[in-house]
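Q: Sequence in, structure out?
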Amino acid sequence: MKVALIGYGKMGKIIERIAKSRGHEIVSIIDIDNLSDFESDAFKSADVAIEFTRPDTAIANIRKCFKANVPVVVGTTGWNVEEVKDELEKGNHTLFVSSNFSIGVNIFMAVNNYLAKLMNRFDNYNVEMTEVHHIHKLDAPSGTAITLAEGVLKNLDRKTAWTKEVENSPSDLAIKSIREGEVPGIHTIRYESDVDSISITHDAKSREGFALGAVVAAEFSADKKGLLGMSDMFDFLR
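A: Exactly. Output:
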């Protein structure tokens, strides 16, 4: 498979190494200093592109992939897929989007959904979330935290909206964001009552899991069309 990389920071370099180890060829690497390469024959020859950049550049990068008719897997968070949905559908393009490509995180999301369903019967428990990431992460809460929160809101009737840092009403689910050091990502959901507490946590040890998941998503997406996500790859997430 021919792979184009969009963004060549720490994640881009890890993705490059993992893609090569799985037998794929890197045909184009695009970063801030060579954006004109979106028009190159090398980029257009790619079977799939993997995009890890910044929230303020992701949409423009996606549109350039659509223009080149290159399927794109996007790991950047903090942007709205609705902004490109019409173009995706009208052009019969391919876009794979996930707030987190780690297989472990997606198992964690399934556990989170199930726990929220169980806790829906026990309204003496309040729930809140904490996410910790490295100081370079620009969006807060993280895309993963928002996805986890949406899983809670879907299954816990007493919570109707997520909020940043604090609850403004009992129906709010507070997401607390911490930025420190080089933490790859820690997400915790905690249910608290007067008599006890229940918490689940996913603690990423490195960026390797995210990079591997992105390459697997690229392998999955290369011959497909439409808007795709992790639930399309794994039945247990449905």
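The chain has eight helices and eleven strands.
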